[in-house]
Amino acid sequence: MSTTSQPSAPPRLAVPELLVGIGLLACTGAVAWQTLAIPVSPLYSKVGPTVFPYITMVGLAVLSLLLILAAFRGGWQPEEEKETPTDWKAMGFVVLGLIANLLLIRPLGFTAASVVMFVLVCFGFGSKRTLRDALLGLILALAAYFGFARALGVNIGAGFIENQLNTVIDAIIGAFGG
To answer: 3-class secondary structure for 3-69?
Structure first.
């Protein structure tokens, strides 16, 4: 009884994983370029404004190199998953949501643009409950906006909704003597 093992074919290059890894490596280069442009005062002894960008840059570099290595080893998907066709219609709705967010954030504000994006992305993933998606998107967008605007003091795109809510919140705070 002899067992002859067939030589296994070398893993083929996983092009999508390779492209994502190269794209992430390019993002790492952009982070490095912008981090080097941050002015650092000699008054900072050890921890300055570039510490976290450098940590992020190292993390991105490691992840991108691991993705590229995985791509050369055949990727991380099993063969039967690689044969699944791409749902271009769903992908189109997700991309449309991202583009809508980019185009609407300035004229409408962060919240309205985010709700439109959320609804389109949910639809792309197969949701047919548009009202529920819009309400959930509104709650998440308002939480994100006020988390940045009130807690961190970072304006990420105030529009009509945010301005009206800020007026109400300021009135409430003023009424209680805050």
So the answer is: CCCCCCCCCCCCHHHHHHHHHHHHHHHHHHHHHHCCCCCCCCCCCCCCHHHHHHHHHHHHHHHHHHH
pLDDT over 70 (residue 41): yes
In contact, 88 and 116? CB cutoff 8 Å: no
Question: 3-state class of 155 per DSSP?
Answer: coil
CA distance 81 to 94: 21
Mean pLDDT of 157-167: 83
Those residues with Cβ within 8 angstroms of residue 48's Cβ, 6 or more apart along the chain or in another chain: 40, 41
Q: How confident is the model at residue 44 (pLDDT cuts 50, 70, 90)?
A: low
Q: How many residues does the chain have?
A: 178
- Upper half-sphere CA count for residue 49 (Cβ side, 13 Å): 10
The whole-model pTM stands at 0.62
